[in-house]
Write a structure and sequence with these properties.
This protein has about 210 residues and is an alpha/beta fold. It has helices at about 15-20, 25-40, 120-140, 180-200; strands spanning about 10-15, 50-55, 60-65, 70-80, 85, 110-115, 115-120, 155, 160-165, 170. The strands form 4 sheets. The chain has a 4-stranded mixed β-sheet with strand order 3-4-6-9, covered by helices on one side. The longest helix is centred in the C-terminal third of the chain and has 22 residues, at about 180-200. The chain is globular and about 45 Å long.
């Protein structure tokens, strides 16, 4: 959804069999879901940040990390057995608007919540920190690429992140790994992805 002033965010789960039946109707279905949620919450439809997944919500992982005035919570759902990829190695066949064969889909969806205010730059940098934490988890779990079985996956082809700024002080403009807030983001993400992949797919640390 890009950068927006959201009134709500959601990770919408639907059974894998539904996604298979939707085929070309997946995007309109997701938009209908956004509209229904906005109407139910009585907020503007464009102000709902939405992700979708076929992972079971019962396998949600929630991890909180704190240091002094800083609190970070990461919520993750994860499936990496059907379309795990190694970015920079695996090919991508999908071209938006073209008629391409559909591939089985898994996804790692992450919601990052911060109690402190994050600038737009900090929100953007947080996406990198979250991605690094997620990839570290995949590597430590030895999750292979679905397409190149001899290499480790760095994610799936449909991963999503929603990063939410808080309002408390101190205000952060940097969320990289050298910052305390970045450390908390990375550690919470790593642990949440580890837990979610264990619950959903049976991937566990050696």
């Amino acid at each position: 959804d890009g950068l927006l002033d959201a009134n709500a965010d959601a990770n919408h789960a639907a059974d894998p069999r539904l996604w298979e039946k939707l085929v070309d109707d997946a995007k309109p279905y997701a938009e209908r879901t956004r509209v229904a949620l906005a109407d139910r919450l009585q907020v503007a439809r464009p102000s709902v940040a939405l992700m979708s997944t076929a992972a079971d919500m019962d396998n949600l992982a929630v991890v909180t990390r704190r240091h002094g005035p800083l609190t970070v919570t990461v919520l993750a759902t994860a499936g990496a057995k059907s379309n795990a990829i190694r970015t920079g190695v695996d090919a991508g066949a999908y071209i938006e608007g073209a008629d391409e064969d559909k591939k089985p889909a898994g996804t790692i969806n992450i919601v990052l919540l911060s109690n402190i205010e994050l600038t737009d730059a900090a929100l953007a940098r947080a996406l990198i920190t979250v991605t690094e934490g997620k990839t570290a988890a995949l590597e430590d779990l030895h999750v292979p690429s679905t397409y190149t079985s001899t290499v480790q996956a760095t994610g799936t082809g449909t991963d999503s992140i929603i990063a939410v700024s808080g309002t408390a002080a101190p205000r952060a403009s940097y969320t990289g790994g050298h910052s305390r807030i970045g450390e908390l983001i990375g550690k919470a993400t790593y642990q949440a992805v580890i837990e979610a992949l264990g619950k959903q797919n049976g991937f566990f640390l050696p």
